[in-house]
Structure to design on (111 residues):
């Protein structure tokens, strides 16, 4: 069981930002911005590469919910959404997740 599945199961504590039957959003323990929230589906999907017609509805729901998560976290002037996919992109947890970063002006560079 991956670390995010353990967080979903309540085996590892997290500071929740949002939760419903399909997804969980929680604050990153190593924030890269003043507000850094991870949004994950409760269904284990390994990465963006594993999104298909069977699970894409949850991804759509996540993106429909991200604006309300950001607003509830106090992000009012824009934010960045990132998903790392694979080793070269530094995906350290093989469970689909989206980073919401905001709370300050962010750098234009990502490399």
């Amino acid at each position: 069981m991956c670390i995010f599945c353990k967080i979903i199961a309540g085996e590892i504590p997290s500071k929740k930002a949002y939760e419903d039957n399909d997804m969980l959003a929680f604050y990153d323990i190593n924030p890269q911005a003043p507000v850094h929230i991870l949004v994950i589906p409760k269904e284990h999907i390994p990465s963006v590469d594993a999104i298909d017609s069977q699970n894409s509805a949850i991804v759509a729901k996540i993106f429909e919910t991200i604006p309300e998560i950001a607003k509830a976290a106090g992000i009012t002037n824009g934010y960045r959404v990132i998903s790392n996919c694979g080793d070269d992109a530094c995906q350290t947890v093989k469970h689909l997740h989206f980073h919401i970063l905001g709370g300050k002006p962010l750098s234009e560079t990502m490399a």
Summary: The chain is about 20% helix and 25% strand. The helical segments are 3-8, 56-72. The mean pLDDT is 96. The chain has one domain: 3-102.
